[in-house]
Amino acid sequence: MIYETIIIGSGPAGLTASIYASRYKIRHLVLGGQLGGTMALIPQIENYPGFKSISGMELTQRMVEQAKELGGEIKVEEVVKISKKQDFFEIQTEKETYQTKTIILATGTQRRQLGVPGEKQYLGKGVSYCSTCDAAFFKDKTVAVVGGANAAVMAAVHLAGFAQKVYLIYRRKPLRAEPIWRERAENNPKIEIIYETNILRIFGKEKAEKEIRNPKLEIRNKSQIPNSPAERDPASRDKFQTEGVGGVKLDKEYKGGKILPVDGVFIEIGGVPTTELIRPLGVEIDDKGFVKVNVEMATNIPGIFAAGDITDAAGEFQQIVIAIAQGARAVLSVFKYLNG
Amino acid sequence: MQILNDQNFDQEVLNSEIPVLVDFFAQWCPPCQMQGPIVEELAKEMEGKIKVVKVDVDQAPQTSQKYNVMSIPTLILFKNGQVVKQMVGFRGKEDLKKEIGV
Question: CA of A181 to nearest chain B CA: how many angstroms apart?
Fold first, then answer.
C-alpha cells in the first residue's frame, strides 16, 4: 500500500500534521521515536493557549489521543533511510519499508551537548538533559544547570523543588528566558545564577574531592591522598562506572574557586537538527543544519515538506505553537500537491 | 508485565536462571512512558530466553540506589545476578535487541 503522506516525527508538529491529515482524509502514517518529542520533556507549559498550566507529558498524551481518535496511525519506529524512487519515496525503518507519495519532515532537534570532558562518561551518572526525568534523584543534593533560555531556567526552577541548591550557569548576561521565568529564578532562594561563565570539565566524585581539598596537587599523585573512596575500599571499584558526578570546573573563578562541587549537571543549551537522513535526498538546509522551507512549508524537493523545530522558519523562536501551526500548514500543502 | 519493588527484586532478578532485562522507570518520566510499550513488546518476543521486568524507582529506592540509577529510563541486563550491561536513556526496540545481543 502506498501512503499519501508519511509524517516523520511525533512531536507537536508531527501530531498536528496527523490531526489535519485525518481531517483532510489523507491516508497517512506517523513514524516517530519518542512520542511528543522535545515537548514531552517540559515540566510545565504555561504559554500554550487554552491551558493555564500543563505538563509536556500531559499535552503530549492529549495530542496523541486526538490524533489516534481521528484515525491517525502512529508507529514508534526509527527511520533509517529515505530514498526517492520514480513516482514515490521509500522510507525504511528498523522494522519495515514503506512507500509514500509525499513526506512531512518533523524530526525536530536533538539536545545539544556541551562537548566537554566527562560529559559522555557521566551520562546517567549525574549528567542529564532531562530535568523532568531525573530531578527526583537529586533530592537534597546540589546541581548545576547550564543554559540561559526557557528550558534551562525552567529546569532550574523545577530542580529547586527537589535539590537543596541549584547553580544556573550561563555564558552570557542576562538570562534570555521569558521575563516571567527569569524572575522566578532570580527570586528563588535555592537558585544561584552564575553569569558569563562556562563549564570546562565535569568530574567524578573522587577527582572532585581531590581538586577541592588541594587544587594544586596533581591528580596522578593518588598516594598522597589515601582517603579517596576507591583507596579506602578497592573492592568497591565496580566493573562499570558507578561513581557519580562530583563537581565541575569553571572557566572563571566563582566565590574564590574554579571548582564547583555538584552532584548533577543538567545541560539545557538548545537543540541541533539531525540531517543525515535527508542529506542524500538533496534537501536544502541552512548553515546551521535547519531545513529551508517557504511559507507553505515546502522544501526544495517536490513532495517533501517540513514542519517544526527542524525548519528554518521559526526565526530562532522555536515554540510549540509555531510547530503546530507549521504542521497544519504542511498538510494543506500536501493536500494541494496531491490534488494538483 | 511484572513491576518489581525492593522486596522482590533479588528473588526475581538476581536468582533468575535466565538473563533478566530490568527497565527502571517512574510514572512522572515521559521517556519512561515511551519505553514501556517497547519493553513489553520485547518481553513477548524474548519469552523463555530473556526475562523482562520493570522497576518503579519510587517503589524501589534501595534497589535503584544499589545500582546507581540516577537517570531514567535506565535498562540493566543481569546474568546470574551480575550486571552485564547498563543503558541510560530511551532506546528503540532494534537498538535494545542489538545491545542485549539477540
Answer: 22
